[in-house]
Structure formats: structure tokens, C-alpha cells
Amino acid sequence: MPVQRLNSTDIYYEIHGEGPAVVFIPGVAVSHGMWAPQVAAFQNSHQVITYDVRGTGRSGKMAWSTRIEDHARDLASLLRFLKIKEAAVCGVSFGGVIAQRFALNYPRLCRALILVDTFSELKPRDREEASLWLMTWLASPMFLLPKPWLTSILMDFYEPWPYAQQVLRAEVPKIRGLDAVKTRWMIRKVDFTRTLAQIQCPCLGIVGGESELAIRMMKRLIKAIPDASLQVVPDSFDPTSLCQREEFNCLLADFFHRIGWQAGMDVEPLYPNVGFTHKIERRRNPEGVRTYEWKRERKWVR
């Protein structure tokens, strides 16, 4: 797969399948490889595009002066190079920040938006959010740790989610520590909430249910986007695309179906002898945000 010179940097990308275009943007420090379950799920029904953002994988370096706008321009340049007129764009965590900026700056290229375990601002509104802000900066040097130490920290944290452990273990050797620190420095200025009303494309928010603070920040984001909805996935954490990949893929498939960006799935079940039925409960919470919560029942197939 190629590396292309775009917007004064090198961008590594991969394309799988044919059909309506879907772009997956990874989180901070990790490469396109974190989207392997989604490539497997959607490559038979969509043109799936994954890429390494600046400062990750095989793409160009981050500079201290790099801005979110540069990342959004990188993606726009990639789509134009590939002659893709519009795409559904899905970003997790830091990738969700890029996706928001992309949708604001390049609305004609953005057919739909999926924002996962992300945020639209980092201005603390209370002590809990201030603690998160402080922890974000204090944790930045973690990316400079020796890789075995960083692997051990991540494996301990993601112990409840073995598949996420597996993927992140493979990602750690690819992490470029200083570029990751520069990325953390860049996102300190993120403040999109007041401008998100300009987004007019269909938008789905997905957040893991293990963090009340993450849910609160996602509710704030989704409430600011017209007609957007939020799905809370139980027993999940950032990134939900790995911690609960089956539920995540089902949510995407359902969303694509509802907006006419048709998708199907071709993934091998985790438990061949177990079937899952899903029920979605739709409600409006006190903040006025439409939320959807998955109810999953396990049923043995005989």
C-alpha cells in the first residue's frame, strides 16, 4: 500500500473493498492497524480507507506548530487524490477531533460523521473535568517510556477487554513517543462546541459506558450537532471499536442502513455456537440528547 506526498507531508493509507467510501481515523499515537476489525467487517460492502495521521505509523512527522486544521486538510487532500467525492468519516478519541474539524471545514466531502469516545472541548467546567485535563498533560510523558513499560501499563488497564489488549500490544512498537507528546500538546486548544451547529450531515455518537465523564463529554458534543444521536455501549471504554467490536460494528451497520450508506458485515463470530439478539432502547435524557442503549441477550444455538 502506498505512501503519498500530500499537504507537505507523507501520508500512508490503505484501501480495502469497493462501494460507498468509509474513512476510519485512529486515536492518539496508534496507527491505522487499530481498525482491523472494522476493515474485516465492512470491506465486502464498502470502500474502506484507513490511514496513519501525521505523527503515527508510516506517515510524516508532527511539528510543534501542527494544528488540527492541518490534520483535516491531510484527509481532504487524501480523498481528493483518490477522487472520492464524499465519504462517511469515523474517528475515535483524537481521531474524532480530526473528524469534527474535517466536517466543519469540508462539508461537501463529509457524507456522514461517526464520533467515538471523543470530545469537542477541553475547557474544564468542574473539578472532575479539571482533573481529567490535568491527568491528560501529566500522562503525556508516558509515551516516552520504554516500550515494555508502556505495554505493561496498557495490558493492566485493558485487562477486562482481551481483544483490545491484543491489538494495542501490536500497536505499542509503532508508537513514536515525541510525536505523541506533540499531539497531546496540540489538542489542548480544542474548542469546537459552539461551532458544531454548522454540521448538517447525519451524525452518530458512540461512547463506552464505563466512564461517566466520557459520557458527559459526548453528550455535550452530540447535543451541539443538529439531529445527532448518541449510543452508549455497556461494559466498554475508549476505544469502543476494540473493547466491544461486535456491538460497535452492528451500530455502524445500522447507521449506514438508516442513512442509505448501505453496509453489511462479514466477520467470524467470537463464539460460533452462541447467537446474540440486540434490542435498542431509544430515549431522550434530561439534557435533551437522544440516546440509544444496547440490550444484549445471549442465546445458545443448537
From TrEMBL:
The lineage's top-level taxon is Bacteria
The entry lists its GO molecular-function terms as:
hydrolase activity
TM helices/strands, residue ranges: none
Q: Do you know which InterPro entries this protein is assigned to?
A: AB_hydrolase, AB_hydrolase_1, AB_hydrolase_fold
AB hydrolase-1 domain location, by residue?
20-134
Per UniProt, the keywords (alphabetical) are: Hydrolase
A Pfam family recorded for this sequence: Abhydrolase_1
| Identification of the protein by name | Alpha/beta fold hydrolase
